[in-house]
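Reviewer 2 asked us to include a model.

Predict the structure of this chain.
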Amino acid sequence: MAHPKSRVSKQRKRKRRTHYKASAPALTTCQTTGELHQPHRAYKDADGNLYYNGNLLVQAPEIVEDTIEDTDDEA
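Predicted model (C-alpha cells):
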C-alpha cells in the first residue's frame, strides 16, 4: 500500500478541493401540465397529482372541508 512521503495539511487539501462544485440540476417542461421538473423524475403538480413522463401516476385525494358552525351553548 502506498504511503505519502509527508502529510498534506488541511489548508492545502481544502485549497485543492475548492474547484469541486455542485452543478445546477437540468429542468424540463412537462408537455401535459406545463410544470418544470427534473428529467426522469416523478413530480407533483400544483394540485398534488403525481406525474411521470407526462402520465398521471397517482391522483391526489380530494380534501373536503367540513364547515363547523359555532353554536353558543348557554349553561
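Helices lie at 10-16. The chain has a mean pLDDT of 85. We have added this to the supplementary material.
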